[in-house]
Amino acid sequence: MPIWTMHGNGRTVAPGEVVAPAERLNWPATIAIGVQHVVAMFGATFLVPALTGFPVSTTLLFSGIGTLLFLLVTKNKLPSYLGSSFAFIAPVTAATASAGMGSALAGIVAVGVLLAAIGFVVQFAGIRWIDKLMPPVVAGSIVALIGFNLAPTAWASYQQSPITATITLAAVIVFSVLFRGFLGRISIFVGVAVGYIVAVIRGEVDYSKVGEADWLGLPTFHIADFASPGTWSVIAMFLPVVLVLIAENVGHVRGVATMTDASVNKSTGRALIADGLATTLAGTFGGSGTTTYGENIGVMAATRVYSTAAYWVAGTVAILLSLSPKVGEVFNSVPPGVLGGVTTALYGLIGIIGIKIWVDNRVDFSRPVNQYTAAVALVIAIAGFTMQWGEFQLGAIVIGTAAALVIYHGGNALARWRKTGADDGGPLVG
């Protein structure tokens, strides 16, 4: 594991330079940046357990532990914070409602184990096979359908307090377009803060559990349940999340490599292994599944500090915060109206990220195979298609993901066999 060397004078970063992963600024500056990373991830990380009913403190604990584990597995060469993944919200919500929290946690564990296994394959065989299995039109469809499938959940919360929800949504949008740099990148967190203040004024916040909670104490743990009959019927709906986590991790590694050193790309397999192990650990004991966070890439881009030392600070601070039940209850007190406002934006943004994958890769939607791959998958997700055989049920995310893969690969095979020109011809050439 490399030892951090001091960058320059330890206080400033010269124009055109970056603080590399193996470098650091002086410790006061490094600690300040680490705390800033906690602020950046906090808004999104606490929202996932708040929306799924998981304990916030437990999720925060395993987020911090997962981050430190990630740094160890990647040999301290890849700066990243592992926060709660929004890709888990839909399957966790469905699994908890039908089979209970223990079964939902088993689904998270299954995703983590599969992701780690794929990471080992990537580490030794490379990543090209993933690109072939999940080309841009398929990857974009899967990411988009997960976001759009959550639209009814956002509306259910929104309508409980439309005024508070509207103000929260407006605050998120205004802060994102009004400010540049760090404040703009944490617009979701700031929007939640504004909405929360409005909810307090309107008498919508219940502080009874906050007053009863201790200042210090261990988080609440729940154990993944693989024994219940309903568990195995819900695990299938979690598996498409693996594809999203792969896309997020690969995108994170490539983003850091672009801004620092191309050799960072060699850590792709280790990143997948690390996130898989962190997700498995979190799911085993009651935390939310994790992923690399774009919010923290934004902080690195703004500060030009890619030092892994800052992430050791961030992970440690997150663990310390999780050891206060009172802090956890404060975040549990966020009312439905605030959650409805922020998730209206957030779930839509997940969908837009999928669309951005299409745009960035110039997917040719004049080709019928690409048209139907995206169209069918999105309608299945938005409508909430389900299929059931006895006790076994497949949700919209699983069906939509399967549809995208089958239509793309099957359609391409047929079109190329018949030479109709309906197949995916690859990115457009400008």
Automatic annotation (TrEMBL):
The lineage of its organism: Bacteria, Bacillati, Actinomycetota, Actinomycetes, Micrococcales. GO terms for molecular function: xanthine transmembrane transporter activity. It is a multi-pass membrane protein. Keywords: Membrane, Transmembrane, Transmembrane helix, Transport. This is NCS2 family nucleobase:cation symporter-2. The chain crosses the membrane at residues 54-73, 80-99, 105-125, 137-155, 161-179, 186-203, 223-246, 305-325, 337-359, 371-390, 396-415. It is found in: Membrane. One of its GO terms (cellular component) is plasma membrane. Belongs to the nucleobase:cation symporter-2 (NCS2) (TC 2.A.40) family. It comes from Microbacterium endophyticum. Its main location: membrane.
